[in-house]
Write a structure and sequence with these properties.
Radius of gyration: 28 Å
Helix content: 10-25%
Order of helices and strands: HEEHEEEEEEEE
């Protein structure tokens, strides 16, 4: 005669397995949401330079300022106000104030937006030292606003001079 071992009451589940899986998934989602860092954004302001691309396309000598906003999360767009400053008689002089500009992120790089159309006419053959700076904000996908600012660092010499505005 076969021996039958009764199932232990402790081994029988009191909660259906689908509910357990659902609770574990909910816990994982909540913990990931609470532990995820806040998205951050930085503004990369390149040094102002004499633009060969503007010279080739428009036959115009100019000082160009490139800016890129980079975020740790996808963004909708970035809005910045930028300026170019020049050292003149040991003083910083703003030689170009750009109106606020907006750049959208692309599907290829959704966490970045680039500004490549900031330039000011200059007189080629006259050296001057320039620095670029900008401030503004980024709107992330989902609507969160992140303030940003940056500058190109030290003054760099270019062989083209902008008159003061």
């Amino acid at each position: 005669m076969p021996i039958t071992i009764p199932k232990s009451i402790l081994l029988a589940p009191k909660i259906p397995s689908i509910a357990v899986v659902g609770l574990l998934a909910a816990q994982l989602i909540v913990l990931n949401f609470l532990n995820s860092p806040e998205p951050t954004c930085t503004l990369v302001v390149e040094r102002p330079h004499h633009s060969t691309s503007v010279k080739e396309r428009q036959n115009l000598d100019s000082i160009k300022l490139n800016i890129t906003s980079k975020c740790t999360a996808p963004q909708e767009y970035t809005r910045v106000t930028a300026r170019i400053q020049k050292l003149q008689n040991d003083r910083e002089v703003t030689v170009s104030n750009f109106l606020s500009r907006t750049a959208s992120s692309t599907a290829r790089v959704p966490s970045e937006a680039a500004f490549r159309n900031l330039f000011t006419e200059c007189k080629f053959g006259h050296e001057a030292s320039y620095m670029g700076s900008a401030e503004g904000y980024v709107i992330l996908k989902g609507g969160k606003k992140v303030n940003v600012n940056g500058n190109s660092g030290k003054y760099e010499v270019a062989n083209c001079s902008i008159g003061a505005q």
